[in-house]
Amino acid sequence: MSAAPAHDLAGHTVLVTGASGPKIGSGVCDALHAAGARLVINDLNDEHVGRTVHRYPGAVGVVGDVSRPDDVARMFNEAIDRAGPLTGLVNNAGVGLITPMLDATQAEFDRIVDIDFRGVWLMSQAFARSVAAHGRPGAIVNVSSVHAGKTIGRYAIYASAKAAVEGLTRACAVEFGPIGVRCNAIAPGYVPINRDLVPPDYPAPDASWIATHTNSEQVLQRVIEPIDCGWAAQFLLSEQSRCITGQVITIDAGLTARLYNGDMSARIYADRERQATLRAEGQDAR
């Protein structure tokens, strides 16, 4: 059998939720469009969806809230009516929450769970039903986070929701596999926004913080960009990942692979060298 073109998505139609912002969704759309996929752009705001659709010739837009069952059903009907049967779904829509767990409100908890977890379930269920109805294989890519496995203070609810997404990813892989649907996830580390998609006065993160994070916390000293996440999603939607399901690809430049950050590692090395020098000189290294 001849090899399929690398990550080629020509003839595929992929719905990307939360796709109109300058964050990870922008990289996903860029990568999938470049690979030949027809995009179905989802977000909450009609104007934002329209602007995003304009960037990708052939794309269509569907406005709706992924956490509302009626919206999800309508979005799939509109998408299929306007773009044909879907072959891929990227569950990118999500919101964050940075607050101590002791101070978090019920409303804050519900909002995170509704969008970051319930929305993924509703969209995945609708997609699998659509694939089964049309008799074509399909693939789902869920956007998780490094917080699903390791987190910091004030991220407890967000981290829990992302951990639930990874559990759901594995469960969907098991249940949807017999009908030809694969399900995987990507877990990005810190990904700055695409500044090309925001106005000049859009609040920018502290550049010194990003530099410290990149150079001290990550193994690879380069900033992760939205397109890095897009390329991973592209692979997981392509024929070249046809035997991969139930997996999570971490895109964090080695953040979660190391035991200590660069500063702590340097201190440990320095102390080991100090002790070795003292031993060589016949002194007590304690």
From TrEMBL:
Keywords, comma-separated and alphabetical:
Oxidoreductase
What the entry lists under CDD domains is as follows: SDR_c
Under InterPro entries, the record lists: NAD(P)-bd_dom_sf, SDR_fam
Keyword Oxidoreductase on this protein? Answer: yes
Q: Which GO terms describe its biological process?
A: fatty acid biosynthetic process
Q: Could you confirm whether the keyword Oxidoreductase appears in this record?
A: yes
Q: Which SUPFAM superfamilies match?
A: NAD(P)-binding Rossmann-fold domains
- What Pfam families does this protein map onto? adh_short_C2
- Top-level division of the source organism's lineage: Bacteria
Q: Which Gene3D superfamilies match?
A: NAD(P)-binding Rossmann-like Domain
MF terms per GO, please? oxidoreductase activity, acting on the CH-OH group of donors, NAD or NADP as acceptor; quinone binding
Q: Which family does it belong to?
A: Belongs to the short-chain dehydrogenases/reductases (SDR) family.
- Fetch the PANTHER family from UniProt: 3-OXOACYL-[ACYL-CARRIER-PROTEIN] REDUCTASE, SHORT-CHAIN DEHYDROGENASES/REDUCTASES FAMILY MEMBER
Q: Could you identify this protein by its name? A: SDR family oxidoreductase
